[in-house]
Amino acid sequence: MRIYDFNVKKIDGTDVSLKEYEGKVLLIVNTATGCGFTPQYDGLEALYAKYRERGFEILDFPCNQFLNQAPGTSEEIASFCKLNFGTEFETFDKIEVNGENAHPLYKFLKEQAPSDIDNGGLEDLKKKLLTHSFSVEAPEIQWNFTKFLIDGTGNVVGRFAPTITPEELEAHIEKLL
User: Fold this and answer.
1) What dihedral do alpha carbons 100, 103, 108, 110 form, nearest 10°?
2) Quick check: is 17 in a domain?
3) Is residue 134 part of a domain?
């Protein structure tokens, strides 16, 4: 199984094969519009604007599994992101990333990269969220804005904690382009 074997749904409900992204460097992110990390959309859009002409794509998957921080329809979420952060990268249909209803793409990503590369901020995040019954353990996705970096041949290069900012990924992206 390769990443290009998966289909995902656009926000209009149509299927798209990830084969369409073969040869490109991908950043796959589970997002939320009502999260403390939501301002990372600015950094994601800056990365996209800087590198898209060189074969870089961001695949945005809204997820409402973490304290219901992605309310609304997929269309409302995409509209929010375009209006508030000027996003031009693709936002896909809302999915689940953990549990028995996790999207097959995310099951695959978690198998390929079962733990986060962290900058030390994830432990602080866990401590803060424990008051909200936060008990997700690796390999499950820890929170919104977990980022998977995929090389041009479809290999999962790394899984980055939500506390890793888009700007901190720039050197990793440069190496792959």
Assistant:
1) -70
2) no
3) yes
- Count the Cβ atoms, other than its own, within 10 Å of residue 120: 8
Distance CA 70, CA 105 (A): 19
CATH number of the domain where residue 118 is located: 3.40.30.10
> For the chain, give me the number of helices (H) and strands (E)?
5, 7
CA 175, distance to chain mean position in Å, is 20
Cα dihedral sign, 35-128-118-100? negative
Residue 16 is assigned to a structural domain of this protein = no
Instruction: Find the domain containing 51 and state its range.
Output: 3-10+22-176
Helices in the chain by DSSP H: which ranges? Answer: 40-51, 74-85, 104-112, 121-129, 170-176
Assessment of whether the complete model's pTM goes beyond 0.70: yes
Using CA atoms, how far apart are residues 162 and 126, in angstroms rounded to an integer? 11
Q: What type of residue is 106?
A: Y
**Domain count within the chain:** 1
Task: Say how many CA atoms lie within 13 Å of 9 toward its Cβ.
Answer: 13
DSSP state of 10: B
Q: What is the DSSP letter of 115?
A: S
Over residues 5-49, the pLDDT tens digits come to: 999 999 888 999 999 999 999 999 999 999 889 999 999 999 999
The residues annotated as belonging to the active site are 35
